Queue: 3 jobs
Job 1
Amino acid sequence: MVVVSRLRLIGGSADLVLMVIIAWGIQEQTDDLWIWVITACLLTSFVSALPNFAIFTGYIFTLGLVQFIRQQVWQSPILAMFVATGISTLVMNLISIFLLQINGSPIQFGEAFNLVTIPSMLLNLLLVLPLYAVFTDLAGLVYPQEEM
Amino acid sequence: MKSNFSLNWQTIVVLLVAGGLIVMALSGFLNPVINNTLSPLVSIQGWAASRFNALYEFLTVPRDVATLRQRNAELENQVSNLQTQVIELQQQINEAQVLYALLDFARERPENEYVASSVIGRDPSPFLHYIIIDQGSDDGIRHGMPVVTEQGLVGRIDAVTASASRVQLITDPNSVINIRLQRAQTEALLVGSLTGDVNLNMVPQDVNLQSGDLVLSSGLGANYPGDIVVGQVLTVRKQETDLFQSASVQPAVDFNNLRAVLVITNFRPVNIEPLIPEETQ
């Protein structure tokens, strides 16, 4: 996990916390996603120098998006995960850029979008399939279904 | 009397025959006879020995296989334990090498007080370049203290908890350092970027900036101590129409393999903002 999170593409890197939230939330058995979102927000805001508002807003948006997409695209969870990953990464990065600029960071929007957001989105999308497989198995273990 | 005589003759004849046979054998005249006589016996002996060995192996090998398998498992277990020990020792050697290098650096600059610390994490945001170290306010670390390695300047303390601190690297987009070019004896600004590259800005056009020039911290602004190696000029960008020339800098520190750092604890940054006239702010 650490190796994957340190894998960089240009200026972007995979957001494993975000991906784990999406992969776990997209499983139809799970109903405790908000607990993990709050935990992720607290842990990330403790470690990261990003404004806390950006972290909380981004992850809570992801929580709402996952719940919404799970209801709308329930027949194809893997497609739902691709959509949720793309939109969440985009929103999370846009919030980060916006708040960093407000805080006085000399970040150019175009540069940040091209060098960080797009590579990060690509890396996150590459992680969708393996994480979906892992978390589907995990959900099966945590919530075993009774055979009829 | 007669029987004694015949017995002597018999003995003599036997001795003569035996001596003759020995002489013939030694001289090689009997080799064909010996070969023809012994070869069937050797064949019989070989056949019997092979059958005996086969029977012996059949009766004894299964027990040996079980013993060998057990022994093999023991040795494999021992090998894996030894390999683990080798890896651990190798890691300890690497850590010791890093610490020895930091110790040498600290000895070369006895005027500073240092706290050694291990790097235990990195900022997960790709927009920011920060590391987390395992020493905090309980160890005397305060906000703004400079962080170095034996290679050069790393950054400065940005946030502190009781047992950990966050360090802003010089590659961070928000990082601005006053530097001095050693050869040109000129001051300029070193700024970080999103991609982790660091660039020199505000270098006057008349300065002869060359690739390979050493970049040191200047101490101006009171955020960092002076004369700490920051990096080397990589490529110079100079256009006649610009007010200043700029350059990309290769940092002296390898930020991808940063494992241990030194925090300079007797340096306190000074907030000089109240001293700057409002018109220039």
Note: Residues 1-108 of chain B form one domain.
Job 2
Amino acid sequence: MNNKPLLAAYGVTFAYHNDLVLDGLSLELKKGQLGSVLGPNGSGKSTFLKIISGMYSLKGGHNSGYIYYRGHDFHKYSTSERAKKVVYVPPDVRVEFPLSAYEMVLLGRLCQGGGFFKRTTQHDRDLAHWAMEQCCCWGLRERNWSSLSGGQKQLVVLARALTQESKLILLDEALSKMDLHHQEKIGLLLRKLTKEDYSFLLVSHDINLSSEWSDFTLILKEGKKVACGKTSDVLNIETIQKTYPGSSLTVGKNPVSGMPKVFFGVKH
Amino acid sequence: MSSSLFRAYVIAVFVWLISIVFALNFGAVDSPALDLIIQLRLPRVILASAVGMGLAVAGAILQALFSNPLCEPYTLGISSGAALGAVLGGAIGFQMSFSGIAGSAFFGSLLFASVLYFISLKSSNNLLTVLLGGVMLGFLGSSLVALWMALADANGIQGALFWLLGDLSRARMTGSIIALIVISFLTLMLWFRWRDLDGLLVGEEGARTLGINVFSVRRTLILLTSLLVGICVSAGGMIGFVGLVVPHFVRKIVGSMHFNVIPLCALWGASTLTFADALTRFMVSPHELPVGVVTALIGAPLFLWIMLQQKERSL
């Protein structure tokens, strides 16, 4: 059973009404891997994550394909079962009512159910504390949601994802508003968690952020695969030119980690 | 339970009891004899408590369901169905009896609630469609009421007109007790969904990532809330502001977790309407004002104050 990938998506084709967004996309993610999905605006990255998480169905219309989690048809699980296995982390969360950061993190325990009067157990609270410490936001726990900055909200939402105790976390631009210092801390946290059998799929426009932390990269363009493989192999000038034709982008290396980096190639 | 939460419950129960005592003792008549209290004021207090509880709880549920702080029990148009039912009932001769007007109003609200439920079944992917469908139903109902009023004999619909402004003066013991039992039961059923409601605080998409089956939750909540609003409006007429202001007030005290928001809304809704109904007899004694007028007179400035406070904090 362990030979099976943790997550496998095969032949995913998806259309919003008649606009084809994903065209026969496949991907396998193994336990403990951190993968990233890159591509220009509208290439279907976020849609792909939402399909994997079960938020979008592959039934009906022009849609087809399969999502397997540990070899089982993932879309056949109930919503709460899915939330215990895979978490989708959105780029931002809007809340219209007063809510503290700590309460936001505890919402991650909703999928575990519980008795009517048993609102939170000691385990829930311990887990929320651990997750908030890990995501550098324990100090924000009493702050009201509306008073937090975009980056702080992302830290809290990531902590919430960790309290769901799912081993696969889908990050949809979930680090985009953090400052560089926190991006580094969270990047290191993700790497540490992959050693504890967590797996991540990161969608980002920030190629240099995702290239630093990911084991493999899938590059999409107009819903189709441009390249997929080890990040250091895939991120080269050919694939970048293919993905962003007509741009001046050029590829270099991080002098410390040796990971590929993309730069603007114009003088001004 | 933390001490501040315990205090919030104690204060809510205390205020409700004070409102009940106030409502039983104050009135147009100077000598509050025991018979008068039992026959006239007690049913009224029971009905005011029940309707206030139902309206406040329905408001809290709809605000959470649509992630919209401006939602209130009348947003979904169920009340317009009730109004249409009441006016038509009045026109065909039910205007003299409380149960006649309430019955025809309830029939109207059930009809509109069924249409709304059908809309929610059809629009499986879009909550906005349900909201807009409800608003359209509301417009349709009020236009038909206006049309009927323009065409009908004014004397025939007088009872229904008073009802439209919110009227608890026709309460009788049996009807009030039935309303209290049904509204309490529906409130309890909705309270049981506190986990789902908490999940909905982060919006429909967010709730799904937390493991909430939004489609089924939405249908259940719309069904239960429509019934609740239908019963409240049929029994008490169009009483505004309780369902809008009380949930905001409660959230300011205890935050937005529905395990506490629902019971506290029930308690504060009951106190507010009981107190407001007593004021209707007290303000322009020996005459009476429609209770909807009193709740709007108190509720509108209060809501404005809450809004301005929030704005100040966000600056």
Note: The mean pLDDT of chain A is 91.
Job 3
Amino acid sequence: MLQQQKTSGDQTRGYNFAFLDENTKREIRRKVLKAVAIPGYQVPFASPELPIARGWGTGGIQITMSIIGPDDVLKVIDQGCDGGVNAVNIRNLLVKTTGVATTFDTTVATIVQTRHRIPEEKMRADQILVLQVPIPEPLRYVEPSEVKTREMHGEMDYSRMWVFLYENIVKWGEITIGARYPSLVNGRYLIDPSPIPRWDVPKLDNADTLYLFGAGREKRIYAVPPHTKVQPLEFDDFKFRVEDFTGHSCTRCGASHTYLNEITGGGNGQKSYACSDSSYCDKLRQARKEGTD
Amino acid sequence: MTLLESGFNKVFDTQRIYRLTLDAMARPGKIVVLPQPELYPPEGITPYTAGVAFTLLDSETSFALLPDSDLSRQYICLNSGSRAEELSRAQFVILDGRDDFPALTDLCRGDLLYPERGATLIVMVDTISEQGEGLRLTLRGPGVDGVRTLALKGLCPANMHCVQELNREFPLGVDLILTDQKGALAALPRSCAVELNVEVDC
Amino acid sequence: MGYVAVSGGSEAILKAEELVAYFRLKGDSAPLEVSQIKEQQRLAVDKVMGEGALYAPTIAALALKQAEGDNIEASFIVRAYRATQPRRYVSLPADTGEMKIIRRISGAFQDIPGGQILGPTRDYTQRLVNFSLLHEDQDSVRNFLTGLDVQMSAQLPDTFPKVVELLRREGLLVEPSDAGGGLCDITRESISFPCRRSAKLQSLARGETGAMMALAYSSIRGYGDIHPYLGELRVGTVPLRINHPGSSEPVYVDRILVTEAEIIARYDEGDKSGKPQLTLGYGLCFGHNELKAISMGILDRTLLSRSPHKAPAEDEEFVLYHIDGIESSGFVAHWKLPHYVTFQSTLDRLRRTRRLKEDEDAPAAEDKR
């Protein structure tokens, strides 16, 4: 479903198109090009303040604001859901300042801005996924200093991350990192793919779509171009593993091939599961209903 | 004749040019077509090149021109706010691809800590096509599904050799945006492995 | 269920906004006038200007009203507003020697040229609740003001010499080794390390008072090597001037109220072959905010440390990355956002690890039987 919202004089009075001034947009545009040219490398950018709090998506928003045009169709999701309060708030700001059409349908959107999920439906070459990133630095697990992590990336010295993972396995028999799984891009730069679940990491590898990552508070932009190798770190004898939903399926649509949210509801504390990708779930549910009619 | 442009829309025209440029940079060898901008640059700069320049340059950037000319420099400065800089420090270099510019070896490639400081070249050539006349490039790497070919008429091979040399030690290097006389645009980020196939003298 | 929240999300936000306004207005009291906040809560306004990094008293007062007195929220509003303002000029360096003083003291010296001017300070009052303020009205205010004969400008000289000049003249003061490096704008480029001096001072000048105070406190309590003295603290207005293409002379814009603190401490990290010296830690912020200026001066000094084992207040990255109130409050608060997808992933790891542990322990349990 497409909701057309034409720019009215009232709606955009007093705002630049897409809120940001052109200087700010241009800086981000330049930095995004460099990020694409050096896949996985975190490009510093000025990241001036927005009326939305730091840590609440300003990086992703700034990228979207810098690339969006009046003919784009925008989808905004949080945890996979279009209706989450944060997604609603961000979508409102973007629509208020651009008048663009919006959609909940991943296949119809030209720009999808997301927090913590990659949509289940495979994205195409004519689409861009903009991811909101809280901590862009994968090496923060092992090193708090920006000066040191910059050097480590420069020299491609990721030994301490390997040691960290190895020590996890020795101690727990399992790697502890859930979301934010460190992955090597183009065989060169280690990235934090943002807090997407491990489920979504394989979608980055050799994709058709362009992935842009924005960390507003930390002031970094990075990118994974299409058809680029993305390898989550693993050992020969300890392979990368996605979340395990064996035996579970979505109570709304019946899917067992999607990332599921655990829902503990009702007085009896019964656990059930539902698709995290709400609009995909709606489609499957609709299809199931039509199938049985 | 005034150098100051007034027809070009700095908000919407630049956004459209940018999305096409981004698409090209993300998919090396993909040829996109820029809409003809309402720009009337002096001899030596095409309207399409000017459009790309005004999309990316402003008072926070520096540029150099090869070949240099007072008029072209004034035109770029006046309409973008960008300042002219010597070649080795310029963030953007606007280049006539037909001539041989050995000075390209001086371009900034960035460093291991800040590779993004490597320059961006906006290269003007005669024609960009997939299989047509001119210098033949075979492309592999991020953004390329398998292999891609690009044919560039009006690009001196020596310039391309220079660029390959500058890009020999990834992540250091420079990134190219190519524009032709009819508005076709393609991009070669430093991540792209470029093989030259046809040798001609310029 | 959650998915009906597609429209529920929008509704919830609108209702929340309504409730915010309701909670602010539901009392019986008359709506606050922005002028009241500006005039009678000037220290809150000054704090918000300093942390919002925008000298705009009316906007700051309005933000405080909008934020119901939440200082960090108000600073955030000011900061976001600042980001929308066009940057037309950069002022010429302001000389605080030109300051029209309202307060000027030194801790390092008993007597200073021009004298110690206490000005408006609560430093020497006893912190007893003043219940008479419950009954303040326009009449009592008027009586007080007409009874009081305040002619500050008539009594004080126009300018006062800088105390640190005395030390400079004696050759005791060394300039910070990181002076220079040119002027950068940290809102136009993100900071990198080692930090240029102008970037460091800008970050500190817009820092959150409490964070800076805690770090400065840690240093003077012993997590660090410096023993500071307050060379001079001055509060007053300084003139701002710009170069303008329409004039051959600098153009005067206005005066702004600032607080300046110059911290003096012994400097032992210099060349050991020379004589020991003192160095300056410099603090400057918008409005009247002494705790911040002093903390800033202390931190400017502690960040000069070249010790291989840095205390937190001596670690440039640690200090400069964690004192911005807008960034820190945003990230601390962001845990309120849904994280159930990532938490699901954590649960997955945890459950598997526990299963592995159970499988490990199971044979041992068998043996026990």
Note: The first strand of chain B starts at residue 32 and ends at 33.
